[in-house]
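Standup notes, structure subgroup. Blocker cleared on the magnesium ion input:
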Amino acid sequence: MGMGINLLLLDVDGTLTVNRGELALEPEAIRAIQRARGRVRIGLVTGNALIVAEALAKYIGLNDAPIIAENGCIIKVNSSTIMLSALSARSIAEELIKRLGLKPTYQYPCRYLDMTLDVNGDDYNVVNRIREELIKMRVNESYAVETSGYAVHIRPIECSKATAIRRLCELINVDCSTVAFIGDSDIDAEAFKVVGLGVAVGNATGRAKEHAKLVTRNPSGKGVAEFIELMLSGGINTLT
Ligand SMILES: O=C(O)COP(=O)(O)O
Ligand SMILES: [Mg+2]
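Run returned:
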């Protein structure tokens, strides 16, 4: 591959977990990440709340990992936390919960800009109902609505994982072309376009695979372990 990777960015749900739709972490992925520490800089890019992503990074042993949370609405790097929009989707989400009888996720109280609603299995249907309601409320131009497979997210339209990754690269002086990002869902597909190496895990959505440069043979966390082994064995050389 002859591609130097300076920064390895990891999605969380469906990527570090044993499978899409499951929350249990894949031990092989955690072990591979711990082996990769010191060889390449590692960060998390997730739809999860910042506090959830920070706790996960600490428990994996990635203490100073740069974190992009809330689908690109928040960046935590070194000791600064940056909000990438002045607009929060909280009030709109409250209105949608009332109008459509939706349920907030457990992270809802710990979130700032990108708000999450339960999918209860039919996430694409919930996304469409919300998009229609936002049009009725004449605010559909201000918010993006997407599903990760784990929750339906409503966020200020100017925020995304792609935009946040570009901003993070500027902040830590890394060229986006030397960044690898591994993900599993449609939301990650857009972010694959801004990094040098977009990697979709084997059970990723069709859209994610379509926009990835590499699709791992293995699913979710085992796919992450497979990619990291490839990287550590010089299959994709790392510059550190
Ligand atoms: O928070 C979610 O819904 C999914 O999180 P992810 O971006 O790590 O897949
Ligand atoms: Mg995911």
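Discussed briefly. The chain has eight helices and eleven strands.
Next: hand off to the docking folks.
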